[in-house]
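Q: Is it fine to ask for two folds in a single conversation?
A: Yes, each is treated on its own. Send the first.
Q: Here.
A: Result:
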Amino acid sequence: MTVIRTSVSGFCMGVRRAVNIAMETASVENHNVYTLGPLIHNKKVLDELKAKGIKILDEGEVAAPGATVIIRAHGIAPQIAENLNSMGIKIIDATCPKVKTSQQKVKEFAEKGYMIFLAGEKDHGEIISLKGFAESFKSSDISCYVIADQAEAEKAGEELINLKPDANAVLLGQTTISKDEFDLIGTKIKEFFPSLEIINTICNATIERQDALRELAGVVDAIIIAGGNDSANTRRLLSLAQSLGIPAWLAESSQDLPVEIKSYNKIGLAAGASAPDSLINEIEDEIEEAIYSRQGC
């Protein structure tokens, strides 16, 4: 029984940057430091931030006067930034540069009068921020549709073509969506709007992780995905592994390893973009402990 790690793991650039910014802010600001929502989807890291004095500001909560609020990698809608500024809140922007690019593209297309399709999860922070940029262009009646799959793409396409059959339309995606999902959504919308502009905003780190997982699946008997249940890219890795016909589980900590893992000879270990190296190492150590236990060492 052996453990084989995927060739790509650990924090992605955007997450690492956001965590570094938060840690640096905590070392300078000695009180009233918040993140607007959980900085990343990983309990281990959130506990570390809490220990540094960084609190989570949930939706609907109001920060204390003179507070510092860190914007997470997912970004925020411009309307929320305006509200924070109006309250005299100091904003530290840790939005991922890749998400910043997507926000700018959404804004540019909205200004041109395009109808906007966003491929992703409607409740995901990044999609909420992008939708906010689409709806911030007040001088035009821009329609913005968030689409999770082909069925929703068909419903949105039918609705828009009935409202504005001659509309210019563009499709952008959540940076962590899978390319297969994105392509299927684009194909369906094109049935209604053949001239649909498709802007591939999927992060290279997402594609690299998914490709590395496919490669890993070809040489192992089962796979553990390290990461948070709330992480979109981690859940997609789990779904991808399962779609490849290989037993796979998600582990938020070493305590989440299934007992079945002992029955496999080659265990693959992959990780979402918000899983720190310390968590990956911890899970690998626990798998190796299971190996020694099975071998009677």
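Q: Second one now.
A: Result:
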Amino acid sequence: MFEKVLIANRGEIALRIIRALREMGIRSVAIYSSADADALHVKFADEAVCIGPPPSRQSYLHIPAIISAAEITRADAVHPGYGFLAENAEFAEVCEKCGIQWIGPQPHLMRLMGDKISAREAMSKAGVPILPGSGVIEQESDLHAAVERIGFPVILKAAAGGGGRGMKIVHESKRLLGDWNTGKAEALAAFGNPDMYMERYCERPRHIEVQVIGDSHGNAAHLGERECSIQRRHQKIIEEAPSAALEEETRTRLLGTAVGAIRNLGYRSLGTLEFLLDQDGRFYFMEMNTRLQVEHPVTEMVTGLDLVREQVLIAAGERLSFQETRRPRGHSIELRINAEHPETFAPCPGPITGLNLPGGLGVRVDTHIYEGYVVPSHYDSLLAKLIVHDDNRQAAISRARRCLDEFVIEGVHTNIPFHRRILADPEFRSGDFDTGFVARLLAKPKA
């Protein structure tokens, strides 16, 4: 087992990993930028190393500085968390070349799944359903040929992308060329790669993801699905486990398909396969995330497993710690609490002048903030994740609403009022919604 692990991240996920390591008797090393000198992950780690100034490219994305921090602290392994370098195959390879264990999947599989076109091809070969689509669209003639074969509506996606950047939904030919060019420019700016491809657009889908896990001994399993349809501009806001949309027969096929795919790949570590579920109950592979997800706590709440611990054990060469499929117990909901204006959604950095965190049975708050903490402007606006668990979905919603009433963050704007609006909406409460829910909600007059 490892003696010391460096956490190549910040904020609540860095704290989350530190806690798991401490319970395992493993020492932790935090890295931080000068903007995060007063952050809790710096205070609670066993050691901490400043790796640069506030801009991410000079700190949390600066591979040489992170490797140097691992070497001077003699860390055995690196845990990347999520975001930043978590899905960067080059970083994983550099760690391994330097004799530092990567707590994550094999770099070649990270690279395979990081390219959306190669990921589609690999999943199709593994028998996973995919929507009709194209390869990289090199020129205008390829664009028109692809749409002729696939048919409107289509969605243009960045081959190296994620988070909705570069994504364009096109319903008619007169918008096709302009949206393709705009998408390429956005993809180049966001990912350094302008390559775009096309898929048939699925109208009013659900976004369902499956948590999968595999070890180096050939064992592969799923830990159920998560419902991720509540999103704004392709960014998730609320996640649930399990999904209320799945019939049991569909759930069995979906979970079995996901496990078969990672077994076919020989995948080692945690991973998430993301699917679109259409109105007829058919599912299609969308992408695979080769890392820990922001929403992993809802799976932990319904399975009773520590997913970070599982990652560490697998990286150390251990077998999966469980032998039987973990059926979900009750229902869990996670709400992402962001430092942003609840109506304009503009980021809102600044000092936190007052704070009260909700509590009680079945309540978990993953956060790195405290009264007096200054929310920096350089990074993601996530302040906390409120996770609740109860016997069923309606009880979990009631618990979440109660917790939002107790959750007080003063000094900066947050999206807590928007979460209240979502949880009070009849469409959300019914469980009969799709990825267009938030857009429809925002178009409604406020009560």
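Q: Anything structural to flag on that second result?
A: Two points. The mean pLDDT is 96. The first strand starts at residue 4 and ends at 7.
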